[in-house]
Amino acid sequence: MQCQNPGCGLRFPLDRAEFKGTYCPRCGGELQPSVPALPQSQPTAHPPANIQSLSGILDNIRSAQNVGALFRTADGAGLQKLWLCGITPNPAENAQIAKTALGAEQTVSWEYAPSTLELAEALKAEGVIILALEAAPASTSVFSYVPPIGDKAIALVVGSEPAGVDPAVLALADAVLSLPMAGSKGSLNVAVAFGIAVYFLRFGVWA
Known about the structure:
5 helices; 2 domains; two-stranded antiparallel sheet; 207 residues; elongated; 7-stranded parallel beta sheet
């Protein structure tokens, strides 16, 4: 929709579920349709993946909104599973997750584990490669990491803000990865960081 007031000119997508008015929400001017809505595009094929079995381990993520965003990312990247550990809320008990998951909480397999450390130990004993995403002094840039050759499953651990990944899990991990930071902040939101890392691991070009 386009506001017809020359002094305003607000242009915005009209979502009748969110906006019931017939006048500009900014200045009260007349609204006119600008262009018809485009149909939602759907992916036609799955891009080639580097890792066939990639899961996420959420180590005490407090925010239900972050957990929902992590579910949506897991669905988009085709992750096999999300492990919800410690105090991480789960979709069966917290309705807030659905607000940012947008249905991904129903498409991504998940399981609860009370201890991230015990889970990581059990998975590693089964041959799963444990990666931790943490801005630790000895970490490796995720963009420089090349997993071992083979078809081993990989699990990526992300931790709470600001505590980070459990130090005992960091010690257990096969590799600790981090994202380069060029600004004044030392880290990204956990859901954003997880998204960057899993998409690179799944679809990035490795040296």
